[in-house]
Amino acid sequence: MTDYPVIPGAEPFFSAGNDTGCLVIHGYTGSPQSVRYLGEYLAEKGGFTVSVPRLPGHGTAPEDMARTTAEDWLQCVRTALAELNERCTSIFVVGLSMGGTLSLHLAATQQDIVHGVVTINTPLFINNPQFAALAFAPDAPPFLPGVGADIKNPDANEISYNGAPSATTRQLFVLIATAREMLPLITCPVLAFRSREDHVVPPSNGPYLIDHVSSADKRLITLEDSFHVATLDNDRERIARETLQFIRSRQRTEKQTYTTIAD
User: Fold this and answer.
1) pTM of the model
2) Which of 98, 105, 148, 237 has an alpha carbon within 20 to 30 A of 172's alpha carbon?
3) Where would I find the Serine aminopeptidase S33 domain in this sequence (predicted)?
4) Fold for domain 13-262?
């Protein structure tokens, strides 16, 4: 089996800090680079223990990703969560795009560990019939056009694949569908960001998420100056600042009752 080197800049990130842990997860065909600014901000400004893993098959080559499954991606973030749980008393999970979908899986299935979840342009549905048709198409090409690098800021760049392996599209759809069905199991505090203009994930995913989780404490923030990869875009500082505030205010008050806010 071929071993593919990690693209420079796409390496995972870990910073040991205090007893509040933050698991930050990148998206489909992306790499830790897309959320590294957010992870470093939480480590520096919050003093948190921050883990930014590299999902299997990501940050290397599309051919490498073609060999992976949703189960591989889930196992990766479960392992990272367990490692944080060994050293932290409260843990928050943060995810961009499919990383947010993975975060919701953890929040639904690891309720005793996840104290809060933050999602950024996270898909629970894609509304792309042509893309869905390729998931089980026998004549689908090996690789499809990439879905990354949807960024408004012309000076920002994402390390992502130009093409997505067709074999992983069905994995993505299964992951999304199961997360959507499990939303009522989520009771921890939720902060969701959605870009008003997103060319990958319909912005209506944000309100849908807020409407279907069982959390009493949930907030939706609309980003006005970023596209899909908002963690690298013009609103990246706001995302980092709001996420830091969200975590700080809930580190030791996760049993408190909160009011739902949407803007």
Assistant:
1) 0.93
2) 237
3) 22-233
4) Rossmann fold (3.40.50)
